[in-house]
Amino acid sequence: MNNTLTSIAGLRVGQYQRSGRGWLTGTTVVFIPHGATAGVDVRGGGPGTRETELLRPENLVQQVHAVCLSGGSAYGLAAADGVMRRCAELGVGLSVGASAHEVVPIVPSAIIFDLGRGGSFENHPTAEFGYQATAVASRRPVRSGTVGAGTGAVTCGLKGGVGNASRTLPDGTVVAALAVVNAAGSLVNPESGLPWLSSHSPASFGLRRPDRDDRRRLQEIVSPRLENYGIGGSGMPPLNTTIGVVATNAALSKAECTKLAQVAQDGLARAANPSHLLVDGDSIFALATGTEAKETATPAVTQTSLAGPGTRAAYINRLLAIGAEVFAAACLDALLSARGAGGFPAYRDLCPSAFATS
Fold first, then answer.
1. pTM of the model
2. Is 237 buried (19+), middle (13-18) or exposed (0-12) by CB count in 10 A?
3. Which of 1, 97, 196, 199 is most buried by a 10 A CB count?
4. Mean pLDDT to the nearest integer, 243-271
5. In 3D, which of 250, 284, 328 has the Cα closest to residue 47?
6. How many Cβ atoms sit within 10 Å of the Cβ of residue 191?
7. Selecting from 3.60.70.12, 3.30.870.10, 3.90.650.10, 1.10.8.60, what CATH number does the domain 5-347 have?
8. pLDDT digits (tens, 9 = 90+) for 210-224
């Protein structure tokens, strides 16, 4: 069963990364050959983005053709050039001329900071990373963990990565998320040793409270970082950022996509504590393909009533709530799927006793 972003028809995902010999970074591309309505919400204090202004509801362009998520800090924004090149080769883009090849691919992008984590500061994604990720983009379930844009991701001393989550409603509407978790804050409560998101019901996530030795190892890594820079201490702050995409097959306007991206940020705040700091660049894109299984799944727009279960407001509210849920779940999936790299341990390595099947 596909519980990732590609469970939504019309979306393809490709990833490309390099690790070893001074490298620990990569790029993840959401490729949308037939386009999708999009919105964005940028909430962190240190964002690195490209083509986000055109997603404002009042601006001309209505659809995007890919979203590029990359490591490399601002250098990694160059990966989008490769995405555009591959899209142009396929004739995918905004038509601006009489000939079929006269297109401009619309590729909003965001980056995380992972410079130097592989050993060499100079090694970061280039246009080739974006090209290769787009070239291999497919409908297959998306791989989570230390891959793509999450290859060099770190969160409060633990290995971060790429995570996925998806939920399908009875009417055929799907809401899914892909998160690249590189948060300055912690996804784990150092006291309990459990992720914040699973604290009230760890068994439902396949987890249990780690034993004392595992909690001690975790605290030795996470607690000093939270004390030094996560909660207003005087230590050197990290350079981080969590980025991602929340998507649906519902038919949404640009304004509704923008709201979906905004509420998905609440999901990030549930998973990582603290979030949206000056050193984070938290940016979430929202996509709506309008390909839901039933044409009647999205109620018609009405200005005459806001009340009642059959109104569009009620329908959109439900999508917003689920958007926050799946983005939070995708963040947790990134933490649990990551493997140690670059000298940064994974949660699974430090707390093997937390996993009910271990």
1. 0.94
2. middle
3. 196
4. 97
5. 284
6. 12
7. 3.60.70.12
8. 999 999 999 999 998
